[in-house]
Structures are given as C-alpha cells and as structure tokens.
C-alpha cells in the first residue's frame, strides 16, 4: 500500500524524548512504522527542516451552536476579511475570528494541526455540533459536553452520589457522542438563569444549594471513577475580573489529594483552561495587574494539574462561552452586540464581539499575563498553547503566539506598539523575562503535552511506530534559526508539508488533499443503574421540551467515528 | 479654499456601456485607484464580475482615454445606462467619477476620498461605510444611504453625501462622523444607533428618526410623521445649516439609550426640527 519516507528532518518528539535529532520517519498505510519496514516509499526531503507530529489543540471553539451564532451575527467578520481563496481547496473559505467550518479545517491543516478538541458542547444541541464536525475538513475532532451547570449533575453531586453521577455521565457521553467532562463557570451559568452568578467557589447555586467547589470536586471524582481518557476540564469561576487569581488558586487547590486513575497515560486530574483570564490581581480595571507568578508557582508544584494559556493576540475577535453571566458583563463594558441563550436544564451561552487593542492598558496587560504563564512554567508538558479560540484571539494566530514565546525580540517589537507600555511593564513581569522557548518546548506545548493530557498520546501527538501518521514539516532549520522573528511566524503559519493519516495533505502551505476526518468519542461501560435510568426518564417527562427518544444523537449525525472504549463496569 | 482641480491636469477615461450585461455587473474595479497609471487598453482588461463569471471590463464598455499618473489625477466618466452596474467607486481614495445617468447599488461604498457625481438615481447602499470624500447624487437614492455595512457597528466616519432627491429607509445607520444632506424626504430609520455625524433632511421624515442614537445631529426641515418618544424638547435654537440660518425646535435623545459623560455633562444626540 502507500508508503512515505520523510527524510533527514530535525525531529522533535517529546513523547519519545527526541530533541531535534536528524532522522527519517517511515509511514505505511496511514501509520508510523520503522523505516526498515518500508519497501518502495515515496520520499519527502525534509533536510534543513523541523519535523513534528501533527498539532493537537486541547481547547478551541470551532463547531456548534454558539460558534454559529458568532458567524451569523457577525457578517462584518467576513467582509474584506476572507483573504484566502485557494484554488486547491474544494470549498470556499470565509470569516476571520469565526471562520466557516471549511476555513477552520483548512487553516488548522496549513498550520500543521490534525486534532482539535471542541471545548464546549451543549448536550441538547449535540446534533448541530456533529453536523459541523462533519463539515470541518481534514482535522479530527472531539467535543466535550458541558456538565458544570447540568441539573442531573447538580442534584447527584449535592447528595454526593458519585456512582449515580458517573452512570449519568456515561449515558450523556454516549447520547452526545462526547469526549469528556467540561465544566464552565460551575454553578454560575445555572445561577444566570436566575439573573445571578457564582463569582466565588463557595457561592451556593440558587435552588440547587450546592457550591462550585462541590461541583468541581464531584466531577473530578466522577471522572476518576470512570477512568476517562481526559480529566475534568475546568473554566473557573470569576473569569476575567480583577483580583480573580485568589478564586483561581482556590479552584486549583480542589485537586489536592486526587490522583489520576486511567489506562491512557494521563497524569492530571484537572485541566484548567484559558488560565490567562484567571490570573489577575488588583481590585478594579484601574489597578489590575498580573498574578501569573502566583498561579504558576502553584501549578509548577502540583503535577496533577495541566493548564492552557488562552493567549490574548491583540486582535478584533468574537468572544463566546457557556459562561452566560460573563458575556452579559462584557457587553456592559463594550456596548457592542450581544447574543444570549439558555439551554434548558443544561447550560447557557453568550456571544459578544471584542477588540483587544494595543492602545488599551487592560488588553496589553492581558497579553503579558498569557505569555508569562508559559514563560514561568517549569513543565511545558503541562502547559499548552491556546487562544481559547476565538475568545482571546483566533487560532490562526498560534504562529504569532509561538513566535512571542520563542523570541524576546518579537515580544519587544509588539510591546513597542503599546500605548500604555510603562503601565503594562509596571503591572506585569513580562519585561523582566528573557526566556525564549525552544522548538522542543513548542512541540511539548502544541502536540505531545495536549495529546497526553487528553489521554490520546497513543494515537496523536507523537511519532512512534504504530501511531497515526500525522506529521508536520516546518520550513525552519533549528541549526540556523532566522534572526527575524517574522520568519518563525511564517514557518508555523504555513507548514512545508502536512501528512495526515499517511496522506500528503499540505504542500508548501497549500492544501493538496482532503483526507477523511474523524470524530473521536468516548464510550464508557458502566453497571446498569435503574435509579439513573428512572431519573433520566422523569426529567425528560417533566422538564425537557424534547422527548427522550429524540434526544440522543442519531447515528446518521455521527461522522466517521473513532470510539475510545472505557470499561468502568468492574 | 484651494482649487486643486484648476492647477492639476486630470486625465479623463470615458467608459461607455455599449454591451450591457445580462445579469447585474459588479463594477468594483471602476475606480481612479485601479485606472491610475494604465492605458485605455489595459483598463479594458480589468476584471468585472457578471454573476459568477469573470470578464474584462472591455467586454461591456468601450474605453477611451488613459488614466492619470495617480488616482488623484484620474477622472472617470461613465456613459450609457448604468442602472445595473454596481459598486462603481467602491473603496476609492482620490480622483473623480462622473456617472452621467443612473447607477445601481453600492456606489461609493467604503470610499475614502475623491468625488463621485451621479447625475441620475442610485439604488441602495450608496456611500455605505464611507470614510471620506464626496458623493453627490442629483436624483433619488434607495435604502441604506451612508449606513454601516450589515452587522458592522462602525458606520460612516467622514465625508459628505448629498442626495438632491428623496431616500429610502435606514439612512446613516451607526453614523459616527461626516455629513449626509437629503434634499427631499426620508423613509423610516434615520441615524439609528448613531454616535456622531450630521444628517440633514430638507423634506419630511416618516418616522423612527434617531432611534437608539447616542450622539450626533439630525435636522428635519419638514415634518416627522411619527416622532419617537425617546426624544425630549429642550428649547428653540437658531442654527446655520448648509449655508442658511433658520429657527429649530431642539430635542435631545434617545433617552432610552446609554449616553457618555463628557466634562461632567451627559452627551445626547440632537434632533432639530425647523419651526
Ligand atoms: Zn473556551
């Protein structure tokens, strides 16, 4: 069958500890193989270039109803901003901060990415999520249903019924073809249904009378009870507010005493997402300051936690989150249009356009906070590149984020454009940090680390024989790195080659093939649980506006599935 | 006042529509910026779109005369019936366009400078997203004159639009700056969400004038058929508008909308109706 040999590249594979060795990568029938197993391969000459596994994004909002609301209510996001019209792609591309599904797939592929985890699936709307997954070419997708404000979850956890919550979770993962447990502003989005919020982790949720702290701990216990590939994935309470770092530290401490139980090589029990939005000191927008050091000191000392950056890229973008009360708060700050949605029994969502301007002090402080988190990290296998796309910036800016991380000169260049440079330097540590990350560390942050944290590092994120043949080749010579940081950005924006499942997909930065993409989901076997079955039946009878029989995803919505099976029945 | 046009020797390109398109023609390449530095024959090769078909400008128009050295040195005259030619002068930055008859939608859209003079009528969206320059229409215009593009909250920033006749609805939506002067009547929705700029309606306005307006000025010489309750009369003032002085009733609003505070005073939008 089809054989490929990627020759003479500088290979960076943190999962195998390979740090830029010049070596060949063999590919046969869509899998990585020993080069000795090849008979008559086609050759890709990667001499003088950087070779990594295909990129893995642990947290991005790319498919589903709130993304589509962003597309619908921001036609201006497309006007004069859909620059790429590739003659080699089968579908038209459009959009900037909220690109079309097609552009999303193509742009990730051009950057050398092959796996993207949709960060928030409203369970009721899982068919929409899966329909958009189908329409997002090339990249494999998973989607995490949200649990942190779900009525079932709140009731079970209030009564400390972990086993019942686990049975319900397994049922919902199957019903939505979901990947893992996402928690957004635990309790706060349900409180938003009452016009309230849970700002601190001990604020009780109205009616349910359970605290965010209890929800977080209960979902960690549920996750480890089931032994899921990924850990509980947390968007903390009190996002985006001055002084919130103390709430964040309190949330992080909730993971103390828990150890991971799974067969997927995952070592954390809590993934904390877009940490940048949760690392602010001060008590007003006037004196907001970076507390990234306090946060990262804690993360560095606790290896059962992983984090991603949520880097602000200083662009006009579209914020969208299941954190309904936060979006309302943001709308009041910038007076732009606002969409607000309640998803019965399950969650909420809001969408607001936002401009992160280098002329605004808060925005440039946010920019510094994100980079500091990564630059203070002692373990880049636990610290990942994200922009919480599109919340802090579009994913298409990852090459710029990587460049800022790799080059002090690139950071200085950007800082020159800041209107409030002195105030930004005063309120952050960024100017005192000279650290420049290596290509190996970038490989940790963009593929090996996220794959391991997602529990899929046996398939994605590395180049060991037997893994999926997803290989990105970047036109960057580690022995002769460009002095101009813009050249690093350019290399990561358009890879020289992307091989996906053994198929040459990108060549010289252009899409040349659109191999079949997959949907990854987690099927957990749990013991029969009559009580949970009855609870589900009752809630659908009394509270849902849809019937139980119409709720679960129909098979025809599920595109090219790859099931990860977990047996929690013993 | 400077008289640049007297000193400058502008070159004139005359386009005559001799072979009208079957579908609407997307004419965004017809700008002084695109014509500058090109000979007539080169101009004839510029792309225009008819539906999904791309073709050369010369397929539809005969082109006479060369472009000037820069956009500012280039004048374009359009002859023939351009009622179905859209986007003439879109995003132009300098120079001049004279349309001797009617034109279709999006004339002078997103223009930044220069001047367009339409001697007939235009369809909707003329001067949409305008940042600067002058757009003069001798006849009528349809909807969305000087409005913001769909979804966009950053509307007209500067420049002047003058329509001698009447206009349709949604004039000056999200206007932030610049001036729009309508000689005749305006249909519903004027300066909705406005946050600056000036709109003058010398005829009547039907209604919803200044809805959700934060800042900026509207003058209506005739009557407003259905005034909004969000505007409150605060007095009478004498004002000079478009070269003539008159007495106006002064309203502030939209009181249902947020309003910024500048130097301790709340800033409102002003609506003036002639007494
Ligand atoms: Zn997110």
Keywords:
heterodimer, A: 570 residues, alpha/beta, TIM Barrel, nine-stranded mixed β-sheet, five-stranded parallel β-sheet, B: 275 residues, mainly beta, 13-stranded mixed β-sheet, four-stranded mixed β-sheet, 21 strands, elongated, binds zinc ion
Average per-residue pLDDT of chain A, rounded, comes to: 96
Strand content of chain A: 15-25%
CATH class of chain A: Alpha Beta
Number of strands of chain A: 24
Distinct ligands: zinc ion
Number of helices of chain A: 18
CATH architecture of chain A: Alpha-Beta Barrel
Task: Output the CATH topology of chain A.
Answer: TIM Barrel
Kindly, what is the distance between the CA atoms of the first and last residues of chain A, rounded to a whole number of angstroms? Answer: 41 Å
Helix content of chain A: 25-40%
The strand order across the widest sheet of chain B is 5-1-6-8-9-10-11-12-13-15-21-18-17
Most residues in contact, chain pair and counts:
A-B, 10 and 6 residues
Number of strands of chain B: 21
Mean pLDDT rating of chain B: 96
Task: Describe the model.
The complex is a heterodimer of chains A (about 575) and B (about 280). Chain A is an alpha/beta fold. In chain A, helix 8 (about 245-255) links the parallel strand 10 and strand 11. In chain A, strands 1, 2, 3, 4, 5, 19, 20, 21 and 22 form a nine-stranded mixed β-sheet that branches. Chain A starts with a strand and ends with a strand. The mean pLDDT of chain A is about 95. In chain A, helix 8 (about 245-255) runs parallel beside helix 9, helix 9 packs parallel to helix 11 (about 360-375) and helix 12 packs antiparallel against helix 16 (about 485-495). Chain B is mostly beta strands and about 280 residues long. Chain B has a domain at about 125-275. Chain B contains three helices and 21 strands. Chain B has helices at about 5, 30-35, 40-45, and strands spanning about 10-15, 25, 45-50, 55, 60-65, 75-80, 85, 95-100, 115-120, 135, 160-165, 180, 195-200, 205, 215-220, 225, 230-240, 245-255, 260, 265, 270-275. A 13-stranded mixed β-sheet of chain B has the order 5-1-6-8-9-10-11-12-13-15-21-18-17. A four-stranded mixed β-sheet of chain B has the order 4-3-2-7, with no helix packed on it. In chain B, strands 14-16 form a two-stranded parallel ribbon. Chain B is elongated. In chain B, about 50% of the residues are buried. The mean pLDDT of chain B is about 95. At the A-B interface, loops of A face loops of B. Bound molecules: zinc ion. Zinc ion (ZN) binds near residues 59 and 388 of chain A.
């Amino acid at each position: 069958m089809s054989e490929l040999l990627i020759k003479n590249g500088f290979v960076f594979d943190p999962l195998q500890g390979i740090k830029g060795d010049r070596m060949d990568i063999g590919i046969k029938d869509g899998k990585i193989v020993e080069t000795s197993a090849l008979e008559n391969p086609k050759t890709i000459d990667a001499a003088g270039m950087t070779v990594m596994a295909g990129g893995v994004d642990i947290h991005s909002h790319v498919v589903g109803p709130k993304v589509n609301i962003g597309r619908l209510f921001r036609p201006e996001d497309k006007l004069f901003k859909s620059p790429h019209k590739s003659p080699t792609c089968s579908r038209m591309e459009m959009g900037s901060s909220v690109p079309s599904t097609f552009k999303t797939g193509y742009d990730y592929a051009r950057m050398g990415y092959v796996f993207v985890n949709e960060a928030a699936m409203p369970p009721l709307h899982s068919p929409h999520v899966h329909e958009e997954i189908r329409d997002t070419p090339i990249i494999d997708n998973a989607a995490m249903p949200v649990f942190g404000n779900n009525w079932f979850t709140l009731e079970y956890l209030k009564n400390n019924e972990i086993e019942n919550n686990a049975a319900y979770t397994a049922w919902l993962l199957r019903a939505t073809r979901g990947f893992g447990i996402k928690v957004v502003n635990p309790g706060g989005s349900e409180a938003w249904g009452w016009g309230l919020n849970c700002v601190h982790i001990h604020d009780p949720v109205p009616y349910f009378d359970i605290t965010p702290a209890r929800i977080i701990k209960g979902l960690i216990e549920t996750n480890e009870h089931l032994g899921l590939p990924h850990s509980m994935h947390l968007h903390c309470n009190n996002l985006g507010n001055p002084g919130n770092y103390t709430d964040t530290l309190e949330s992080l401490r909730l993971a103390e005493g828990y150890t991971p139980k799974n067969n997927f090589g995952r070592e954390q029990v809590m993934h904390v997402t877009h940490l940048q939005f949760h690392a602010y000191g001060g008590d007003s927008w006037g004196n907001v300051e970076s507390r990234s050091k306090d946060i990262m000191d804690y993360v560095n000392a606790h290896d059962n936690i992983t984090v991603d950056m949520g880097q602000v890229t200083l662009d006009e973008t579209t914020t969208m989150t299941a954190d309904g009360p936060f979006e309302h708060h943001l709308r009041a700050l910038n007076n732009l249009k606002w969409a607000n949605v309640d998803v019965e029994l399950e969650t909420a969502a809001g969408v607001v356009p936002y401009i992160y301007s280098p002329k605004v002090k808060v925005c440039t402080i946010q920019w510094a906070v994100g980079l500091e988190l990564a630059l203070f990290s002692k373990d880049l296998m636990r610290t990942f590149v994200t922009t919480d796309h599109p919340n802090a910036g579009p994913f298409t800016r990852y090459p710029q984020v990587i460049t800022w991380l790799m080059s002090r000169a690139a950071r200085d260049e950007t800082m020159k454009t800041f209107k409030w440079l002195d105030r930004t330097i005063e309120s952050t540590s960024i100017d005192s940090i000279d650290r420049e990350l290596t290509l190996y560390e970038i490989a940790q942050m963009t593929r090996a680390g996220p794959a391991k944290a997602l529990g899929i590092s046996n398939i994605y994120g590395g180049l060991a024989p037997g893994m999926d043949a997803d290989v990105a080749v970047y036109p960057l010579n580690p022995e002769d790195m460009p002095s101009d940081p813009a050249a690093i950005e350019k290399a990561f924006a358009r890879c020289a080659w992307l091989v996906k499942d053994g198929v040459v997909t990108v060549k010289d930065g252009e899409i040349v093939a659109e191999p079949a993409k997959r949907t990854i989901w987690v099927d957990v076997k749990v013991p029969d649980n009559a009580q949970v079955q009855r609870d589900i039946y009752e809630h659908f009878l009394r509270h849902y506006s849809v019937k139980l029989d119409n709720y679960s995803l129909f098979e025809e919505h599920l595109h090219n599935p790859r099931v990860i099976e977990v047996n929690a029945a013993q | 006042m400077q008289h640049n046009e007297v000193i400058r020797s502008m070159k004139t390109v005359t386009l005559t529509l001799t072979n009208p398109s079957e579908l609407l023609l997307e004419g965004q390449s017809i700008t002084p910026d695109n014509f500058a530095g090109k000979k007539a024959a080169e101009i004839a090769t510029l792309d225009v779109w008819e539906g999904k078909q791309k073709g050369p400008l010369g397929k539809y128009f005969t082109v006479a005369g060369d472009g000037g050295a820069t956009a500012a040195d280039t004048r374009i005259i359009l002859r023939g019936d351009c009622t179905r030619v859209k986007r003439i002068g879109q995003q132009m930055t300098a120079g001049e366009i004279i349309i001797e008859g009617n034109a279709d939608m999006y004339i002078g859209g997103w223009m930044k400078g220069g001047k367009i003079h339409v001697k007939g009528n235009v369809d909707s969206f003329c001067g949409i997203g305008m940042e600067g320059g002058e757009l003069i229409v001798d006849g009528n215009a349809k909807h969305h004159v000087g409005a913001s593009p769909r979804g966009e909250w950053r509307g007209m920033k500067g420049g002047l639009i003058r329509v001698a006749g009447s206009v349709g609805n949604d004039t000056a939506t999200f206007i932030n700056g610049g001036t729009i002067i309508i000689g005749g009547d305006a249909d519903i929705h004027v300066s909705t969400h406005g946050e600056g700029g000036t709109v003058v309606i010398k005829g009547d306005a039907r209604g919803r004038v200044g809805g959700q307006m934060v800042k900026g000025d509207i003058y209506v010489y005739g009557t407003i058929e259905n005034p909004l309750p969000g505007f409150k009369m605060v007095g009478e003032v004498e004002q000079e508008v478009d070269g003539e002085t008159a007495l106006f009733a002064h309203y502030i609003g939209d009181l249902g909308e947020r309003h910024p505070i500048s130097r301790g005073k709340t800033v409102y939008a002003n609506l003036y109706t002639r007494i």
